[in-house]
Amino acid sequence: MIVDVYHDIVCPWCRIGKAHLDLALAGWEGEPVEVRWRPFLLNPEAPTAGGDLATYFRETKGVADPAPIFRRVEAAGASARLHFDFARARVGPTQDAHRLLLLVAPERRATVLDALHRVYFEEGGDLADHALLTDAAAEAGEDRATILARLASDEGEAELAEALRASQATVRGGVPFFVFDETYALSGAQPPETLRAAMRETVAARAGVGA
């Protein structure tokens, strides 16, 4: 089974959705599952040097007090054993971070994504910083010098642009957006049991029987 996950790295619900998917897969006893991470941009025009998230919500989303929003995410994250420090997270572009995920070995992408989530949501890291991106890749086993050189080039830019066009045409209802075997879809940071149910339904539908 193939599970395509459309996500943006600065989307906290996408981070929670990944944690839920990890738990769903840990409890899955069916056929092998391949997870493919598909890029999506929540804010394509994000400034290179952005301000803090609270200011961003007030100035661009019209949210006078974003604290309740942050608390809701923090509570959901805590249930998935994730920590969020919204006071440190900054607004910024994610194109190069998504490009990095295309450049690293497929079997290392989930690990690199976890590292990117950690440095952004917990450490206030700048996802446009090639040194930071390289550190995340090297932490997962990629060669540091090679990744830094590839990021400095335009490698992966055309592939990323095409993937982003496809995600805009595919995603309905926001991210994270899960697509099972290119047929059955779920939107939002669904709990592990819901994701496993979708996987069972996908297998059953392919076999032509009830879930």
Task: Please characterize this protein's 3D structure.
With 211 residues, the protein is α+β, with helices and mostly antiparallel strands. It has one domain: Glutaredoxin (3-Layer(aba) Sandwich). Helices cover 51% and strands 9% of the residues. Helix 1 crosses helix 9, helix 5 crosses helix 6 and helix 6 packs antiparallel against helix 7. 33% of the residues are buried. The model has no long low-confidence stretch (mean pLDDT 95).
Instruction: Fill in the CATH topology.
Output: Glutaredoxin
In total, how many domains does the architecture comprise?
1
What assembly state would you assign to the polypeptide chains in this entry?
single chain
Class derived from helix and strand content: alpha+beta
CA-CA gap between termini:
15 Å
Q: How confident is the prediction overall: mean pLDDT? A: 95
Which features characterize this protein?
211 residues, alpha+beta, Glutaredoxin, four-stranded mixed sheet, DSBA-like_thioredoxin_dom
List the helices and strands and how they pair.
Layout: E1 2-7, H1 12-26, E2 34-39, H2 53-60, H3 67-79, H4 95-103, H5 109-121, H6 130-139, H7 144-152, H8 157-170, E3 177-180, E4 184-187, H9 192-207
Parallel strand pairs: 1-2
Antiparallel strand pairs: 1-3, 3-4
Helix pairs in contact: 1-9, 5-6, 6-7
